[in-house]
Specification:
Largest sheet: 7 strands, parallel
Distance between the termini: 39 Å
CATH class of the largest domain: Alpha Beta
Number of strands: 11
Strand order of the largest sheet: 7-6-5-8-9-10-11
Oligomer: single chain
Radius of gyration: 22 Å
Strand content: 5-15%
Length: about 375
């Protein structure tokens, strides 16, 4: 058993390794990918080392016995070992200063140098994660949000985490057509162009349709659909001036394709965004502008995951719907966006880039 532990890259006080140091990740030991999925999200991480996913000893003990051990066919030995405290370190999963899980960078340094990227909803969650990866790759950032205080905090965090990053922040509501037009035009005047627009600003909450007020419906439609249209239209002149061809990425959801009981307002708005993306890909393709959708699944550490799943007590059930058996990371979405705005995305437009761990393949709602 100890050799399996060492091969898998685990360090355990009770293992006969003589110390708590981590050894090698599961991939190097050719351990089944299920164990990598598991340790990424379920184990108790070492304090001061990597992210602080402290979901409780009982939960990860039970999970490895019930889910991982059978998949690995390790029998009673691994199941018994899972009852003992352990810490894990993965090269593929790191953390930032706030404890947010990170993927190891897969892109060359300076990939997005000289690119001007504007990200709406950029002060937290997926938007902030995209901003961080873009900054690490050398992009000049403009992050848009509604609240000055959250934008200021996001700017300070980016400047601490990414040496040399100096993001521009704009407090504006994407629902306000004239305000967002003036804000984006100001950025184009300042930099002479806009290379990348990431439409990430969104609103959502769980509510049965029969109980939904007109205001609740309208608010989400205004943010998700009208806000995306407002930003795209305002950014057109700047994107046309991009020497490498402008890029637009609209962050949507897989449920825009399947429907979303309990979130019909968000699914409807995002379905409209899918259609808008395809329309603009054709209308604006002649300008060299690529327009694509990125469709995230449930992403760990985000407000959306908390409100839609964790607060409602259905997070475990949602994990069961994930083909890969775990929630994604913010970096998974950020890396997909980085690819699409890089030269790798030169011949990609009008596509739906599904980044959901196979969730869309298991659509059962019960």
């Amino acid at each position: 058993m100890t050799s399996l532990i060492a091969r898998a890259g685990y360090s355990c006080p009770s293992a006969e390794t003589g110390s708590n140091k981590t050894i090698a990740i599961a991939k190097r030991a050719r351990i089944h990918p299920a164990i990598i999925d598991f340790v990424s999200y379920q184990f108790l991480w070492e304090p001061g080392c990597s992210c602080q996913y402290r979901k409780g000893m009982d939960r990860y003990h039970d999970s490895i016995r019930e889910r991982v051990a059978p998949r690995l066919d390790c029998g009673k030995a691994l199941q018994s070992f899972a009852r003992k405290p352990m810490v894990v370190s993965l090269e593929a999963v790191q953390s930032d200063e706030s404890g947010v899980a990170r993927r190891t960078s897969i892109f060359r340094e300076g990939l997005l140098e000289d690119r001007i990227a504007l990200i709406t909803g950029g002060s937290s969650g997926i938007g902030l994660g995209i901003a961080r990866v873009f900054a690490e790759l050398g992009a000049t950032l403009v992050i848009v949000g509604r609240r000055e205080d959250k934008l200021a905090a996001a700017k300070q965090q980016l400047m601490r985490e990414v040496p040399g990053a100096e993001p521009v922040t704009i407090a504006v509501d994407v629902r306000k057509h004239l305000a967002i037009r003036d804000s984006i035009h100001g950025i184009v005047e300042r930099f002479g162009r806009l290379d990348v627009l990431i439409n990430n600003a969104a609103g959502n909450f769980h509510c049965p349709t029969e109980d939904m007020s007109e205001n609740a419906w309208r608010t989400v439609i205004d943010i998700d659909l009208h806000g995306t249209f407002n930003c795209c239209q305002a950014a057109l002149a700047g994107l046309k001036a991009s020497p490498g061809g402008g890029r637009i990425i609209n962050i949507t959801v897989p449920q825009a394709l399947s429907g979303w009981p309990g979130s019909a307002h968000a699914a409807s708005a995002k379905a409209g965004v899918l259609s808008l993306t395809r329309s603009l890909a054709v209308e604006w393709g002649g300008y060299g502008i690529r327009v694509n959708n990125v469709l995230p699944g449930p992403i760990a550490g985000t407000e959306g995951l908390k409100r839609l799943y964790q607060d409602r007590g259905v997070a475990d059930r949602e994990i069961e719907r994930m083909a890969l058996g775990s929630f994604g990371l913010v970096d998974d979405i950020a890396n997909a966006c980085a690819f699409l705005v890089s030269p790798g995305g030169d011949f990609v437009t009008g596509c739906d880039f599904m980044v959901d761990g196979g969730r869309w393949l298991k659509r059962g709602w019960a």
